[in-house]
Design a protein that fits this description.
heterotrimer; A alpha/beta; B alpha/beta; C alpha/beta; B: alpha/beta; Rossmann fold; four-stranded antiparallel β-sheet; 8 helices; 36% helix; globular; C: alpha/beta; 2 domains; ten-stranded mixed β-sheet; nine-stranded mixed β-sheet; 7 helices
Chain lengths: 480, 244, 413
């Protein structure tokens, strides 16, 4: 218990709240054509990419910021943000880790993501994104031998234009909605993955996102393509320094699974949530969507959302191929003044498509937690199946837990089942645990982890342990 | 080890315990018998520290003031309550719960915590001794357990946590004769010079299998009569009315 | 909209209204004019675009009727049990009969000037406030239980065409009183829009049982808005039998204002052709120890569309709330559609709330089982469908009315 106890102690106040003092190259403040050209130019992008961005920007001018979601936030001044910020040392892209600014290496060490060869995490290849650039990608060589491409988005645009052109925007169209379109115009970096036909990716691929600079939005873009019969498991982690300002994070993630391919995408989101009074924290407005394009393909989203002042995301699956499968496993924990509005969309288009949604929402303090989801079965989706379970746990009566499922069924041979419950941790359960020697916080952590079990067990081992700790820590001080 | 003096307990402005006195020495088995509503369960709740009661009087446990301690501190110091209605905790594996509990207690005592392998070995051994099917330990804590399985699980936990004072709250309720025998054998196996038991029960039945050193009759929040194990038999014949 | 303004003036002229009442009607009219019929961009109307439904089913909609019909076809009246009557004929009250009740215990008001406007929750309620031509309020006095049920007959005749009519009823149940109310629709008209508002104030210990029966096939478009206020220890039981009209949306807003009040809303939607029915509920738990229960069963054939939107709101004061809702739908042909939005909004921690929703086809194994016992495929399906609906019908606590509805869906025992 010693080690664990220390770990908890260390994490008590947001462990990742430090910032790295590093010299930055920034785009001029504001959102305009010049800034977009600046981003495209600094990334040495081809003309087609710049054209694509400008098209998105044109479209953005006609779109309005949505306001139907439950969490409300003060108006964002889009002209008062930096859209590109990168460590100056990245201007001339270092060729190897030896050339990388030691401050960056140090930052990732502190975050528990060592990038140096000798210290790397076993069996996990990492793409480390710092503000607007990818600073390093590990295990590239080994992956290359199998024909797997794992690199930063900027590199993919230069090196693999045929794949990027074909798939970028194929799942989240250029003009999908306000934040997705904003991302299309100004996206900076992110990860690109291509798994060739028949290849089972031998290790976990992972991106670690870090926001460091102030007054900067992070707009990363990730694209994962699993070719026929391939498999990949991808992990994503996020942290940011503690700051009084709210920072915007508007990422787009697109997944494409071709025939018989499977993509497993896991997120442990721990952006800075703001302080106890709700000051500061990240606005996490993310668009994640997977396309099960081929027959028998499968996309599975797992997320543990504990950070951010406001989380607003719906990782979705478009089940186009016959027999394709979509899954969504989610834990959303909100404490203090955090707000989360999250869920999924399962769009059944193909025959015999199946989807499963397991959502666990936990609300404490003054927080608001909403599950919002859509299950849509199209007319031609014969024998489609969906099972949804949404459970909410409330701790105290200053917080809220909400369930807003939309169900649309146009096919008579399909079957949809939805269940939802709301409960609390009973005093009797706490007494039982206390009587067996557990203190209040250990008891809460144990019971909540039990509540979340179905989702936690979806995570790859390396992440599951970290996630379990996070679940306990996020709720500290919420039961008195 | 335990000295209770003039213990009074109120809940919702209603007095349940009205001045209870009791002394338990190491190695002794005490039985508290009484009709429904006499305050038996309140006594076990108050001793283990359940919130919601207003308590006055004095309870000394190894010369420490027990009433000042938190629930888990009492557990760390060796007080174990076998619940009348063990709680269901969905999603929490019984083994993991037990390991967390055992290590919390070991840590408080300054002992070395057990790793997963040592723990499993211990569980296997204890389950074997008690003739329990260890399969139930890989299930969610008490979820979907039968009444008998829940009570057996309590006794198994007791044997693993190795407490100094075990309070058995109506452990016999809802048990058939076979389960009752297994549970009693488990308790008897744990009897030693150091460990004491406070057995709370409505019926004499359990005391046929676990022979108490002392029997106390609790009526209306007070102990009205104490004696040896023969008192239990007398009560069985004459009923509680003869004493009230 | 020009037609609306002309008709509005005709309505005002035809009624003897106070200045205040006229002004308030004008305000309501303006509110309707501003928003129009709700369309799918309004969240509550996401699955039922009323604006589109009205424009594609009704040509040249009028808002005023000037013909008189005095003959009522009484053969369609319920003859299974004696009852009190209120008869709306083409939107106008033509008969009120409470002859078997104590007239000091049941008070009737029909003065339009005494009508208080309903809370303007949407443009249709505003339209209703602006245009109603008759009004009735029934007050059941303290400790009085009505001897017989009350049936409100909503009759339309074939003379009524392409017209919007507005009906309004207020029911007041004083302490410890009780009322059984049946809203029965009997339509011989075609292509009209019928807009109904009902308010229920249910005082301490009072009991309301309300059964809405829209049974006879017709091509009218209907909207019914009910607002129910429940005080301490009172009970409201609602049952909606939704099968007759081309389109109907039954919306119930129910406020559990005080401790130990409870609300039950059960119903069946049973549709064929291109019918489109919706049930929408808002249950607001505003005090401790309140309870709500909802069970909606839908059976959809041919091109029909069924919708259930149910929301349970639990205020932070409403600890120990018990809220339950379940929606089950059978899609029996390839062109049917069922949409649902079972919603929970909860701000108190010590509550038990759950909802469930399923939709799909009949269980093939069950059909196989029945056929192996000698039933035909058709018989097996019919049996299973009736069993499916019966589950909801069995929730009706009044025996006479339960039997009446069972007869209507062809379940005989």
């Amino acid at each position: 218990m010693d080690a664990r106890e220390k770990e908890i102690e260390k994490l008590k106040d947001y462990k990742y709240g430090f910032s790295t003092d590093i010299e930055n190259t920034r785009a001029p403040k504001g959102l305009n054509e010049e800034v977009i050209k600046f981003i495209s130019n600094i990334k040495k992008e081809p003309q087609w990419m710049l054209d694509w961005r400008l098209k998105a920007f044109e479209r953005l001018k006609q779109l309005k910021e949505p306001n139907w979601q439950k969490p409300k936030y003060p108006k964002i001044d889009y002209q008062d943000l930096y859209y590109y910020s990168a460590p100056k040392s990245m201007d001339d892209k270092p060729k190897s880790l030896d050339e990388l600014d030691p401050k960056l290496l140090e930052t990732y060490n502190k975050l528990g993501i060592p990038l140096q060869e000798q210290a790397r995490l076993n069996g996990i290849a990492v793409d480390a994104v710092f503000d607007s650039v990818s600073v390093a990608t590990t295990f590239k060589g080994e992956l290359n031998k199998k024909g797997i491409i794992f690199c930063s988005m900027s590199e993919a645009i230069r090196e693999h234009p045929e794949l990027v052109k074909k798939y970028l925007g194929s799942v989240i169209p250029l003009s999908d909605h306000y934040f997705a379109t904003l991302n299309s115009a100004v996206f900076t970096d992110g990860s690109f993955v291509y798994i060739p036909e028949g290849v089972r990716c031998p290790m976990e691929l992972s991106t670690y996102f870090r926001i460091n600079a102030t007054e900067t939005g992070q707009f990363e873009r990730t694209l994962i393509i699993a070719d026929k019969g391939s498999y990949v498991s991808y992990l994503e982690g996020c942290t940011a320094p503690m700051r009084d300002e709210n920072q915007l994070h508007a990422a787009n993630v697109e997944l494409v699974a071709l025939d018989d391919a499977e993509i497993k995408y896991s997120t442990v989101q721990n952006w800075y949530p703001g302080d106890k009074d709700g000051k500061g924290g990240i606005y996490n407005f993310v668009t994640k969507r997977g396309l099960c394009k081929g027959k028998n393909s499968k996309i599975s989203w797992t997320q543990v959302e504990t950070g951010s002042a406001i989380t607003w995301k719906y990782p979705s699956c478009i089940l186009m191929g016959d027999n394709s499968v979509g899954e969504f496993y989610s834990i959303a924990i909100t404490n203090n003044h955090q707000k989360a509005d999250t869920g999924t969309k399962m769009i059944h288009l193909g025959k015999n498509t199946k989807s499963k949604i397991i959502s666990k929402g936990i609300s404490a303090g003054f927080a608001d937690n909403t599950y919002r989801g859509l299950v849509d079965i199209a007319k031609k989706a014969d024998n489609a199946r969906n099972f949804t379970q949404c459970d909410s746990l409330l701790m105290g009566n200053k917080c809220g837990a909400h369930t807003v499922p939309y169900i649309k069924n146009k096919n008579s041979s399909s079957n949809i089942e939805h269940e939802a419950t709301t409960s609390k941790i009973s005093d009797e359960q706490l007494f039982y645990c206390n009587q067996r020697g557990l203190n209040q916080e250990e008891a809460v952590s144990l019971i909540v982890n039990g509540f979340c079990k179905e989702v936690l067990q979806q995570l790859p081992m390396e992440f599951a342990v970290e996630a379990q700790k996070l679940v306990g820590i996020s709720l500290e001080g919420s039961v008195g | 080890m335990l000295t209770i003096k003039d213990l009074k307990a109120n809940i919702d402005n209603k007095e349940i315990l009205k001045g209870l006195n009791l002394e338990i020495k190491p190695g002794e088995v005490h039985a508290i018998m009484g009709p429904n509503g006499s305050g038996k369960s309140t006594l076990s709740n108050v001793l283990s520290g359940k919130k919601g009661y207003t308590v006055t009087g004095e309870v000394k446990y190894f010369n420490e003031n027990l009433l000042d301690l938190e629930i888990e501190e009492r557990a760390h110091k060796g007080i174990f309550l076998a619940f009348q209605y063990p709680l269901e905790i969905p999603g929490v594996n019984t083994n993991i719960f037990l390991k967390t509990s055992l290590n919390a207690i070991k840590k408080a005592k300054g002992e070395k915590e057990l790793d997963a392998i040592e723990f499993l070995k211990l569980v296997k051994q204890k389950a074997g001794e008690l003739k329990f099917d260890e399969k139930i330990l890989s299930r969610q804590l008490n979820v979907g357990f039968s009444g008998g399985e829940k009570k057996k699980n309590e006794i198994l936990q007791m044997s693993i946590l190795n407490p100094k004072l075990s309070i058995l709250d109506e452990t016999d309720s809802g048990l058939d004769i076979d389960a009752l025998k297994i549970v009693s054998e488990g308790v008897n196996a744990l009897r030693s010079k150091e460990s004491s038991f406070l057995i709370i029960t409505h019926y004499q039945r359990l005391l046929e299998y676990i022979k108490p050193d002392f029997v106390h009759v609790l009526i209306n929040g007070q102990i009205v009569k104490s004696g040896g194990s023969e008192l239990a038999l007398e009560l069985e014949k004459k009923g509680y009315e003869s004493l009230s | 909209m020009e037609q609306l303004k002309v008709d509005f003036n005709k309505v005002i002229e035809s009624l003897k209204l106070s200045e205040k009442s006229i002004n308030s009607r004008k305000e309501n009219l303006n509110q309707f004019v501003e928003n129009g019929f709700p369309n799918k961009r309004v969240e509550d109307w996401k699955f039922s675009d009323l604006n589109q439904i009205i424009s594609s089913n009704i040509e040249n909609l009028r808002f005023h009727t000037d013909f008189e019909i005095s003959e009522i076809d009484e053969t369609t009246f319920i003859d299974k049990f004696a009852h009190n009557k209120i008869i709306f004929l083409n939107g106008v009250i033509s008969k009120v009969d409470f002859s078997s009740e104590d007239d000091t215990k049941v008070l009737i008001t029909r003065d339009l000037n005494q009508n208080e406007n309903s809370k303007e929750v949407n443009s249709l309620v505003s339209l209703n406030n602006a245009l109603i031509t008759s009004y009735i309020r029934v007050t059941v006095k303290e400790n009085y239980s009505m001897n017989e049920p009350l049936i409100i007959y909503n009759i339309t005749t074939k003379e009524l065409k392409s017209t919007a009519i507005n009906l309004k009823t207020d029911i007041v149940l004083e302490k410890n009183s009780s009322l059984k109310l049946i809203d029965l629709f009997d339509d011989s008209s075609e292509n009209n829009f019928i807009n109904i508002v009902q308010n229920f104030d249910i005082a301490q210990d009072a009991i309301l049982k309300n059964y809405k029966i829209d049974h006879k096939k017709n091509s009218n478009i209907k909207y019914s808005y009910n607002n129910i206020n429940l005080e301490k220890n009172s009970i409201s039981e609602n049952f909606i039998f939704s099968t007759g009209s081309k389109f109907i949306k039954n919306e119930i807003n129910c406020n559990l204002n005080d401790e130990y009040s409870s609300a039950f809303i059960n119903g069946i939607i049973n549709l064929t052709n291109s019918q489109h029915h919706e049930i929408k509920t808002n249950i607001n738990h505003l005090a401790e120890n309140t309870k709500s229960y909802q069970l909606i069963k839908s059976v959809l054939n041919e091109n029909a569309k069924g919708i259930y939107q149910g929301k349970i709101y639990v205020d932070s004061k409403a600890q120990k709330t018990n809220g339950y809702q379940l929606s089950k739908a059978l899609l029996l042909s390839e062109n049917t559609e069922f949409d649902g939005k079972p919603e929970l909004e909860i701000y108190a921690d010590d509550v038990k709330c759950s909802h469930g929703a399923t939709s799909g086809n009949l269980d093939e194994d069950a059909i196989f089982y029945l056929m192996s016992r000698g039933l035909s495929n058709q018989q097996s399906k019919e049996l299973l469908i009736k069993g499916f609906l019966l589950d909801a019908v069995e929730k009706i606590t009044d025996i006479e009315i339960k039997d009446l509805i069972k007869n209507m869906i062809g379940i005989t025992e």
